[in-house]
Amino acid sequence: MGRWSAPLVVPVHLRHRRKEQWRAPVRVVRPAQGPAPVDVAKGCWSGFGHQEAPQAHGEEEAPQAVEEDSRPATPPRQVAPGRDMGRVVLVTGVSQDLGGRLARRISTDPEVSRVVGVDAVPPRQDLAAVRFVRADIRNPVIAKVIAGEDVDTVVHTSVVASAALVGGRTSMKDHNVIGTMQLLAACQRAPGLERLVVKSSAEVYGSSSRDPAMFTEDMTAKRPPQGGYGKDVLEVEGYVRGFSRRRPDVVVTQLRNASTVASYTRSPLGDYLRLNPTPKVIGYDARFQLLHYDDLVAVLHHAALAGVHGTFNVAGDGMLMMSQAIHRLGHRVLPLPRLTLGALGSLVRQSGLGLPDFTPEQLQFLTYGRGLDATRMREVLGFEPRYTTEQALLEFASSVTSPTRVTHPVVLAESLVSGVLAGILAGGGRGG
């Protein structure tokens, strides 16, 4: 203020240019009209063009602080003439039990006009009104499906927790991480996409002796998962955050669910709790929460239609200790040193019998447990689980104590092998 400044002198040859030519150049990236060429050698990311490429597998972001989102739910949609107001929802992983149940449930919602189910293999279960499209999300053809079906909501449920479901750990990582990367690439090129719901997991927090009593969504793992399912979901969340930065117009919801159980389906923790006697690490009594499988399906359905941006812990109310859960199931405890339980897990993995797999990450959980603060689930997402942790365990117990339980071949193998292992370990202890 008050200082003399020289006037701006414009060269004569530029004085007659139009005003808009003085503006700074704007870089515009238009959505592709179809799936872009894929360079497999470069990780199948050539479809992103000039946009930011995700990090390499070993460079994924750790869970970061989740800021409260100030934007409201998705605004009223601008629908093309002749099209109804119902949503078009695409659900991945419909050949698995979770994806199939979710797709059927959403298809009955009056706010939804059409549900498209996608998977690499045909589903064995009846999908009712769901339109099934056989497509592998690791293939760029998924972009054609999203564009061709005019999808506005994608629910990604096909991040699998067990290597046995996809033929080994290498295939599991390829399915979980590369599949999610390609799906996000397709979503990024879909101008009509409004919502993305991703089923993550509380495994992103890991388990250790230094954990807080309850993890909130803005906390990070004290000991991040170093492999397996936990590392996969950690990478997936990193890529989802990158997608959210590139497409701020899309409402992105990530759900970190607690361990699930139900009488009618299998899960990693459920398979472990079905063992009788139940192995338990000597000197530790892990605390944990449960989410009933029905509530997992319900919260994914709720998130798809609620349109609330953010990351949410999802768990039933209350907490149990491992010793309490084993006692309420009427099982005997098989106390084992941690190293012995780890060796047992290695034997189980090599057996090929489909028995509970004690991976290093699962062993950490069985030792230390984990607690989730689900306040944001109730207050921001607006969801309340039907089952508490204790009620979920009681419903699950009906399958464990059923007289017909041993008629299932896999469950019979569980009973026989766990009994034999208990006898061997007991005999080894007496012998020396």
Automatic annotation (TrEMBL):
InterPro entries (alphabetical): Epimerase_deHydtase, Lipid_A_modif_metabolic_enz, NAD(P)-bd_dom_sf
EC number annotated for this UniProt entry: 5.1.3.2
Residue runs in coiled coils: none
Keyword Transmembrane helix: no
Enzyme class: isomerase
Classification via Gene3D superfamilies: NAD(P)-binding Rossmann-like Domain (3.40.50.720)
NAD-dependent epimerase/dehydratase domain ranges (all copies): 89-315
Span list, region Disordered: 44-86
Keywords linked to the UniProt accession: Isomerase
A molecular function GO annotation: UDP-glucose 4-epimerase activity
Family annotation (SUPFAM superfamilies): NAD(P)-binding Rossmann-fold domains
Name the record gives this protein: UDP-glucose 4-epimerase
Organism of this sequence: uncultured Nocardioidaceae bacterium
